[in-house]
Amino acid sequence: MFSHLDENDRPAMVNVGEKAITHRTATAEARVWLPAALAALLRDGEIASKKGPVFQTAILAGIMGAKKTSELIPLCHPLPLEDCRVEIRAGTPEADGSVELEVRCHVETHARTGVEMEALAGVSVAALTLYDMGKAVTKGITIRETRLLEKTGGKSDYRA
């Protein structure tokens, strides 16, 4: 049933040696809610802090997270990423001044296994970095729904 368990129900890396190398893509999304105190610091699509530009730092962290997925998640195969893009967009401010951010990570490779975990790791690390950089202003930041939006290549495609 679970692909990462062997015949004795012990953890095991999936053997992908016989799979064909195909073009694989994945896009994941996380939602991050900023309370009004932090949202008020948004200017021209960025928040500047003592640690530097918040969104730009989170984008770099997300790319690094995607690249390091096999070191973070047990049994993930290390993959040569050919493309990794992280984007952060602020939604329309709510009546109370809060804002929800949409964080997306898109990853591509040619490999024997998919890049869903890399996309999910990318948005997760970017969202955690947004929290880390914003917590000096308020600890009321909420990392909301993190999900796979789309994957292509391999046995099946998926679209949320």
Description:
By secondary structure, this protein is α+β, with helices and mostly antiparallel strands. It has one domain: Alpha-Beta Plaits, CATH 3.30.70.640. Strands 4-5-1-6-7 form a 5-stranded antiparallel sheet. A hairpin with a 2-residue loop joins strand 2 and strand 3. Helix 2 runs antiparallel to helix 4. The longest helix is centred in the last third of the chain and has 19 residues. It starts with about 20 loop residues before the first strand and ends with a strand. About 35% of the residues are buried. The mean pLDDT is about 90.
Low-pLDDT parts are: none
Radius of gyration: 18 Å
Terminal residue distance:
22 Å
CATH class: Alpha Beta
Task: Note the total helix count.
Answer: 4
Mean pLDDT: 91
- Across the major sheet, the strand order is 4-5-1-6-7
Shape: elongated
Give the full name of the CATH homologous superfamily: Molybdopterin cofactor biosynthesis C (MoaC) domain
Helix content: 25-40%
Structural class: alpha+beta
Proportion in β-strands: 25-35%
